[in-house]
Design a protein that fits this description.
It holds the Pfam family CoA_trans. With 455 residues, the protein is of the alpha/beta class. It contains 11 helices and 24 strands. The protein is 18% helix and 26% strand. The strands form 4 sheets. Strands 15-14-13-12-16-19-21-22-23-24 form a 10-stranded mixed sheet, sandwiched between helices. Strands 1, 2, 3, 4, 8, 9, 10 and 11 form an 8-stranded mixed sheet that branches.
């Protein structure tokens, strides 16, 4: 059995050269090799192409490299979480490429497996597909994505043995597992290094054959930035709760359900264990439970896609981001409940970008919108200026084509029946005249006798 060298942080980052492509594991600061990133920020290494889900937080992780001017180009899924990354991209200071989260994970997995590329339905018909080859496969338009490899990968594992076998803790697998396969040189930052044989073979997530060097580094709450603890709790008005309650009516026992941020997150607070609904989070978990109540944070618990600590229900499982999105694209997620900015008469969805605003990140929205068996959108019926969100044709950048099955707003519930937008319910306090006045999309009406909504 080979022995993988254990080196210092300074020795590790000296292996990164000017102009290298650097893969960095982590989802937010969870499973983020933050000590390696900070040590690299102390060097003069420059002109890096950075590949990761996001560029850390402001001044933390990859955010420190960005602030130092060491990054020439960044490739990722969700830069919005770091305002400095958004500003650098939109000002032209740093080149960037935006990929849907599942596409990014699969591209890294393909690169690590020696696969040149693949076709995916995710992003078809959107701005992110512009300039890419497309084909119709199985009657569905699909976009060609090349595999991704790097010169160096920084990954974070919880434990390693001296042979380089790695095991990850809870949702810390995320992008780390795929990235550990997809670089010429893989350096693993780990909490603990144990003698070979102390990690049971069935508990090895990344075999030592992928790993070139180990660095031992102890994680602290300060290292995790804003992911360190649970927020003080959400407060929602009755209108938003009504939408969440109505969405819950569509979920049944045994359903695998993904809940997006915003109003959909409130649905999780309404679900009880007796409902038998299995919550999925795209950063690698099935069986998501409520937020912890003991004051514990990300050092003690898994995190969801909103980077919030959660509990794990009995029967839960953890996996990496590539497997999670394979689950989504493979139609193993029954229902996705997401927020929306616009929905149009053809069931097209826009929910990830507003021109002129400091937003730069699609996350998992495109994968979920095109991959879930059923897509429910929850959103306010109008914008703050009173303009309609239910429109004849989306004006904002598209997330997915002909993907929406149901829309729940503060005024009404719509379904697409035989391809036609159809009003089926009024929400509490709403009138048909108000819905008609505030909806520019054409729709049919099949209302029940009594409005439904809040119980």
């Amino acid at each position: 059995m080979k022995t993988v060298p254990q080196i210092s942080l300074q020795e590790a980052v000296a292996l990164v050269k000017d102009g290298d492509t650097l893969l960095q594991g982590g989802f937010g600061m969870t499973g983020n090799p933050v000590h390696l990133m900070h040590a690299l920020a102390e060097t003069k290494t420059k002109d890096l192409t950075f590949i990761g889900n996001n560029v850390g937080e402001v001044g933390i992780g990859g955010g420190r490299l960005l602030r130092n001017g060491q990054i020439k180009k960044m490739i990722g899924s969700f830069f919005t979480s770091n305002p400095e990354a958004v500003k650098a991209a939109q000002s032209g200071q740093v080149e960037y490429e935006l990929l849907p989260q599942g596409t990014l994970a699969e591209a890294i997995r393909a690169g690590g497996a020696g696969i040149g590329g693949f076709f995916t339905p995710t992003s078809a018909g959107t701005e992110l597909a512009k300039g890419r080859e497309t084909k119709v496969i199985n009657c569905k338009e699909q976009v060609y994505i090349e595999g991704i490899r790097g010169n160096v990968a920084f990954v974070r594992a919880w434990k390693a043995d001296t042979a380089g076998n790695l095991t990850y803790r809870m949702t810390e697998q995320n992008f780390n597992r795929a990235m550990a396969t997809a670089a010429d040189l893989v350096i693993a930052e780990v909490e603990e290094i144990v003698p070979v044989g102390q990690i049971a073979p069935e508990h090895v997530h990344t075999p030592g054959s992928y790993v070139n060097y180990l660095v031992q580094a102890t994680l602290t709450l300060e290292d995790l930035g804003s992911s360190a603890s649970v927020s003080s709790g959400r407060k929602a008005d009755e209108t938003r709760l009504n939408m969440a309650r109505r969405a819950l009516q569509e979920l049944k026992k045994g359903d695998v359900v993904n809940l997006g941020i915003g109003i959909p997150t409130l649905v999780a607070d309404l679900i009880s264990p007796e409902d038998g609904i299995v919550l999925h989070t795209e950063n690698g978990m099935l069986g998501v439970g409520p937020a912890p109540t003991d004051g514990g944070g990300a050092m003690d618990y898994p995190v969801n896609a909103g980077k919030i600590p959660v509990t794990a229900l009995p029967g839960s499982s953890y996996f990496d981001s590539a497997d999670s999105f394979a689950m989504i694209r493979g139609k193993h997620v029954d229902i996705a409940v997401m927020g929306g900015l616009e929905v149009d008469e053809k069931a097209n969805l826009a929910n990830w970008a507003v021109p002129g605003q400091p937003l730069l990140g699609v996350g998992g929205a495109m994968d979920l919108a095109s991959g879930a068996k059923t897509l429910i959108i929850t959103m306010t019926h109008t914008n703050k200026d009173g303009s309609a969100k239910m429109v004849p044709a989306c004006n904002l950048p598209l997330t997915a084509l002909q993907a929406v099955d149901m829309v729940i707003t503060d005024l009404a519930v719509f379904k697409f029946i035989d391809g036609k937008l159809t009003l089926i319910e009024l929400m509490p306090g709403a009138t048909l005249e108000e819905v008609r006045a505030k909806t520019t999309a054409a729709f049919e009406e099949k209302l029940a006798q009594e409005p439904q909504g809040a119980n």
